[in-house]
Write a structure and sequence with these properties.
The complex is a heterodimer of chains A (about 120) and B (about 110). Chain A is mostly beta strands. Helices cover about 0% and strands about 55% of the residues of chain A. In chain A, the strands form two sheets. In chain A, strands 2, 4, 5, 6, 9, 10 and 11 form a seven-stranded mixed beta sheet that branches. The N and C termini of chain A lie far apart (about 30 Å). Helix content of chain B is about 0%, strand content about 55%. In chain B, the strands form three sheets. In chain B, strands 2, 5, 6, 10, 11 and 12 form a six-stranded mixed beta sheet that branches. The chains are: A mainly beta (about 120), B mainly beta (about 110). The interface of A and B includes residues 31, 42, 90 and 92 of A.
């Protein structure tokens, strides 16, 4: 079983819908991440939270809104998405400081389709 | 700027063959970390190895081995006696400075029975 749990695994939403992606980890990691991966492309960083504070926003459009309610949870709120936002959304966590012995732990992702 | 190049887009071999996946990186930082991840069709990125820039020792883990050469900025990955279960997309990644992984384009490895 993966140590980073993402729900839902699949999501289909219309362009006027509001939905949320959820990510949970119980490894005591204090840094959490959202990555976006388009088909046949590498993952690209969207957001980083360190100690529950947003530390990196890679110029992501405001229709994506991250939230970190506590050290174990990370949400990504979606609103007014476009079909080109269809992708695999990956959550990851890591120890906040080096050495990051195990690197980053990724979840299985949420496959999002915007119709 | 950080950059990772995986020149091999796709590799296809017959089971039991050895296969090497190439990775070349660019960074101006003196302290950095290199990673390899495996991504099966299920989508999850599976951590394989992490190397820091001060540790040039090669590593072997079962059928997997990694060759890190700072002189050529390369961090290549070899699978010995490949198996069908090794079929996946493999990503090389670089972290330098901020908590940001920069991935190569990935190599799709197909092991045919």
């Amino acid at each position: 079983d993966t140590e980073v749990t993402q729900t839902p695994k699949h999501l289909v939403m219309g362009m006027t819908n509001k939905k949320s992606l959820k990510c949970e980890q119980h490894m005591g990691h204090r840094a959490m991440y959202w990555y976006k991966q388009k088909a046949k492309k590498p993952p690209e960083l969207m957001f980083v939270y360190s100690y529950e504070k947003l530390s990196i926003n890679e110029s992501v459009p405001s229709r994506f809104s991250p939230e970190c309610p506590n050290s174990s949870l990370l949400n990504l709120h979606l609103h007014a998405l476009q079909p080109e936002d269809s992708a695999l959304y990956l959550c990851a966590s890591s120890q906040d400081i080096p050495p990051r012995t195990r690197g980053y732990t990724f979840g299985s992702g949420t496959r999002l389709t915007v119709v | 700027a950080q950059k990772v190049t995986q020149a091999q887009t796709e590799i296809s071999v017959v089971e039991k063959e050895d296969v090497t996946l190439d990775c070349v990186y660019e960074t101006r930082d003196t302290t950095y970390y290199l990673f390899w991840y495996k991504q099966p069709p299920s989508g999850e990125l599976v951590f394989l190895i992490r190397r820091n820039s001060f540790d040039e020792q090669n590593e072997i883990s079962g059928r997997y081995s990694w060759n890190f050469q700072k002189s050529t900025s390369s961090f290549n990955f070899t699978i010995t006696a490949s198996q069908v279960v090794d079929s996946a997309v493999y990503f090389c990644a670089l972290e330098a400075g901020a908590q940001k992984l920069v991935f190569g384009q990935g190599t799709r490895l197909t092991i045919n029975p």
